[in-house]
Design brief:
It contains 9 helices and 11 strands. It is an alpha/beta fold. The strands form 3 sheets. Strands 6-2-1-9-8-7 form a 6-stranded mixed β-sheet. Strands 5-10-11 form a 3-stranded antiparallel β-sheet, with no helix packed on it. Helix 2 links the parallel strand 1 and strand 2. The structure holds flavin-adenine dinucleotide and iron/sulfur cluster (SF4).
Length: about 400
């Protein structure tokens, strides 16, 4: 049998979805439930939180106390298989540029370990240019998107509180967990300074939903949740997609190029089987790129043909340009009143119970837009690197019993 015949006998899927993270998982669920047959290509291996989550592991169960490894840059118990560099997937940046590209490779992508902070864009975020003359307005408004936010909230489940803040719209919330000791201390100070400080909005269940149990407050969402109480694609989106019988998942399938016919329409995706190194092809009438923002752009640029010499969907030449990112930084402080505190139950969700949405009036500031503040603190399990830098604390450091006492005290 010739290669051409073999090719013809392969099934033609309605849609090929590249990537199984937040974007790919939702595309697969919606499409399969609408009756489409879907081939999902995922570059990484399988990930199943019930089997793979290290949610309940103690640091001493590892000789490295959970330190990072080349395969898991956030630590060996962390649910992200990858980091800022991936074996066999190098990248370069322009002269004088600095860009650290965080990537994971596994079923569910970053949804297995993201912070679960689930905030809606507000009305002003859709008309930023009209407000401050920078960037562009969106062609849709918050009201256009609101019904979809509502649907996602009902499907995913998140906690929060109804605050009625104009540009931080309320969602459909489950009750938020109580703030912990350090959070109450920060909240007290924020109230005195007139800084808005409200319950976080996290995709973590505080009540059972759609067969998933409520969180039992182990505080380890970064390791993924073995009970499926927080949101990840494999726990929430893929089971209903699979139950339609319309989803076929290809693991270890690194998409290389979207193939097109002589009219320029997609015919499928060429991918590399990472186990054999062989090039394969999956046939589909339509292709959804959901391999993460940069990788999806790379795939479009990689998909060159006589019809599209600069890559697919790139007649403007803007694919892969004008990238922006969500930047973050952290500041650490020490609250003296919490020193020598009485050990008590600090269990909670794996994320901040309180946060500060943008609270200032931009008209009175010399910069546009804003930021939010997430609060972290409390006693963690003493794993690798625990309280590193204690010598920098007032009176900190020391040796032997003194050092141990300092750890307890701080
Ligand atoms: C540590 C961390 C914390 C975060 N916390 C938050 C938060 O609290 N709130 C928030 O809103 N956002 C958060 N984010 C961001 C959020 O996780 C991402 O924006 C979101 O998951 C992106 O979804 P995605 O589907 O585009 O990509 P991903 O989730 O990265 O999925 C892409 C998938 O495609 C696969 N893939 C890549 N290339 C190929 C290829 N060539 N062929 C086949 N498959 C491929 C990958 O293996 C991966 O599974 C966080 C991110 C990180 C890293
Ligand atoms: S804190 Fe809750 S949601 Fe997070 S891993 Fe633990 S039980 Fe699951």
């Amino acid at each position: 049998m010739s290669g051409a015949n073999v090719q013809r006998e392969r099934p033609v899927f309605d849609v090929c979805v590249i990537g199984s993270g937040a974007g790919g998982g939702m595309a697969a669920k919606v499409l399969t439930e609408a009756g489409a047959t879907v081939a999902m290509l995922e570059a990484g291996p399988d990930w199943d939180a019930q089997r793979d989550s290290a949610m309940l592991k103690w640091p001493y169960e590892s000789p490295r106390r959970g330190a990072s490894t080349p395969e898991r840059h956030f630590g060996e118990f962390h649910a992200g298989l990858g980091g800022w560099s991936l074996d066999g997937e190098p990248y370069t940046v322009g002269d004088g540029e600095e860009f650290r590209w965080f990537r994971v490779r596994q079923l569910g992508g970053r949804t297995n370990h993201w912070g679960r902070i689930s905030l809606r864009f507000g009305p002003d975020d859709f008309r930023a240019r009209s407000k401050d003359g920078l960037g562009d307005d969106w062609p849709i408004s918050y009201d256009d998107l609101k019904p979809y936010y509502d649907r996602v909230d009902r499907l995913v489940g998140l906690f929060g509180s109804e605050e009625g803040l104009y540009n931080d719209p309320d969602g459909i919330f489950q009750p938020p967990p109580q703030p912990r000791c350090w959070e109450l201390a920060v909240k007290r100070a924020a109230d005195q300074l007139d800084i808005t400080c409200i319950p976080s909005r996290l995709s973590i269940l505080t009540q059972p939903l759609n067969g998933r149990p409520a969180c039992h407050y182990c505080g380890q969402c970064g390791r993924d949740c073995g009970t499926g109480s927080n949101f990840s694609t494999p726990s929430v989106l893929l089971p209903p997609a699979r139950s339609t019988g319309n989803l076929v998942t290809f693991l270890g399938a690194m998409a290389r190029e979207v193939t097109v016919d002589s009219r320029g329409l997609a015919t499928g995706v060429a991918y590399v089987d990472t186990a054999t190194g062989r090039e394969e092809h999956v046939r589909a009438k339509a292709v959804v790129l959901a391999a993460s923002a940069c990788e999806s752009a790379r795939l479009l640029l990689n998909s060159k043909s006589a019809l599209f010499p600069d890559g697919l969907a790139n007649s403007s030449g803007t694919v892969g340009r004008y990238l922006t990112d969500t930047t973050g930084t952290d500041v650490m402080g020490f609250i003296p009143s919490m020193r020598d505190g009485v050990p008590h139950n600090e269990d909670g969700a794996g994320g901040a119970h309180l946060y500060m949405p943008w609270w200032l009036d931009n008209a009175k500031l010399d910069f546009p837009r804003g930021y939010h503040i997430e609060i972290w603190g409390g006693r963690g399990m003493p794993g690798y690197g625990f309280m590193g830098g204690i010598q920098n604390y007032p009176g900190g450091g020391g040796y032997g019993a003194d050092l141990k006492q300092m750890y307890r005290s701080y």
